[in-house]
Amino acid sequence: MSMKCDKIKEAIEAIDFKGKVIDYKRFGSGHINDTFLLICEDGEKIIKYILQRMNSDIFTDIQGVMENIIGVTTFLRKKIEEENGNPDRETLTVICTKDGKSYFMDSIGSYWRAYLYIEDASCYDVVEKPEDFYETAKAFGRFQFLLSEYPAEKLHETIPDFHNTPVRMEAFKKALKEDICGRRSMAEKEIQFIMEREKEMSIAIDMLKEGKLPLRVTHNDTKLNNIMIDDKTREGICVIDLDTVMPGLSINDFGDSIRFGANTAKEDEVDLSKVSLSLPLFEIYIKGFLEGCNNSLTEEEIKMLPMGAKLMTLECGMRFLTDFLSGDTYFKIHRDNHNLDRARTQLSLVADMENKWKEMEGIVSRYK
Questions:
Q1: pLDDT of 204 over the 50 cut
Q2: DSSP letter for each residue of 137-151
Q3: Residue 362: closest CA among 283, 264, 250
Q4: Distance (Å, rounded) from C-alpha 314 to C-alpha 200?
Q5: What sign does the CA torsion over 308, 289, 136, 150 have?
């Protein structure tokens, strides 16, 4: 346990857990925050909690992050209660400190927060069967639906320009011009691919500015493992990991799910012949997402879903390539040219999307 996590007992003492803490252990597969499962005994009742040390190196505005989470989960609880649902299972429940705050700062400046543990549900890192992808889609769609009336403009932009693709493009061109590692010659084909699509980079942001796409509450990390799936029913019941909740575009949340979940290859696959968009998985996700959204998206948003998939994949490939040109300072690498391999995978997926564009649009039109 790191020195920062040695302060866990301070956090346990500060947070208003019910009963007596009888055990705790590391939990989950996350790489950003340090996560622990706490077991408390309250009379004859056992209550479990999730306790996390937040990574303030990545999330520098801890107060903003927690204000976003409190605002969104409070709103979700009311909506779920109105539908006679179970808010303790269908959204995260923040456990406040004994003095009523949503987080605790320990004696060395680390930040801690706690949630009620959701019993009899699990997260999965990979799609084990298509039904899981459908349930993920429906859960993220329902997240959009339940928050469709939330004033997104009141949320803190805790990571500025996170999915502002034109800004990402400018960062790419800067890295390209500086070429501080002398790597440009290794990626000329990929550079040309991105530059040929520069005009597309601003499509979504321009539509937002023109009022053609509405500002929404977006999750911004719509992977399978950020959905709790009920162990018995196998239904997606709760969206978790709300650290990146910010104002944004619904098509970006949809697109990032497709980029991650409908790719037939690994994110860093070196054999690009394995990389393609699975149209069956794309269709499964469209079906589940629009079902979960329950008519809360505009006609223009639905029409732009394929473009959301393309833009998020293109943006991700560009970010990997920017990091490669800049000396691998952001994304962790595990081999030489790892970020270049990642970029090539994403850009190959973009190319395959372009080849299947009419089929993608046809699938969307069948479900809108």
A1: yes
A2: HHHHHHHHHHTTTS-
A3: 283
A4: 10
A5: positive
Longest dimension (CA), the chain: 67
Placement of tokens 């394929």 in the chain: 306
- In terms of C-beta density within 10 A (0-12 exposed, 13-18 middle, 19 or more buried), how is residue 116 classed? middle
Give the pLDDT score at 3: 47
What would the two tokens of residue 225 be? Answer: 């493992």
Burial of 275 from C-beta contacts in 10 A (0-12 / 13-18 / 19+): buried
- Name the pLDDT band for 1 (thresholds 50, 70, 90): very low
- Measured distance CA(206)–CA(199) in Å, rounded: 11
Count of H-run helices and E-run strands, the chain: 13, 11
pLDDT above 70 for 64: yes
Give the ranges where the chain is alpha helix by DSSP (H): 8-14, 62-82, 87-90, 130-146, 165-178, 188-195, 203-209, 250-261, 279-293, 299-303, 305-326, 338-355, 357-367
Q: What is the pLDDT of residue 5?
A: 61
pLDDT tens for each residue of 118-163: 999 998 887 778 899 999 999 999 999 999 999 999 999 999 999 9
- Burial class of residue 92 in the structure, from the number of CB atoms within 10 Å of its CB (0-12 exposed, 13-18 middle, 19+ buried): buried
Sheet with strand 121-122: strands edge to edge: 121-122, 227-230, 236-239
* Distances from the Cα of 353 to the Cα of 136, 183, 257, 276, 277, angstroms: 21, 27, 14, 8, 6
Residues 292-311 pLDDT 10s: 999 999 999 999 999 999 99
Task: Decide if 182 contacts 246 (C-beta within 8 A).
Answer: no
Instruction: Give the count of alpha carbons within 13 A of 206, CB side only.
Output: 7
* Closest to 288 measured CA to CA, from 249, 262, 320, 321: 262
Give the DSSP letter of residue 125. S
Contact between residue 87 and residue 81 where contact means Cβ atoms under 8 Å apart: yes
Q: What is the DSSP letter of 277?
A: B
Residue 20, SS3?
strand
Q: What percent of the chain has pLDDT over 90?
A: 91
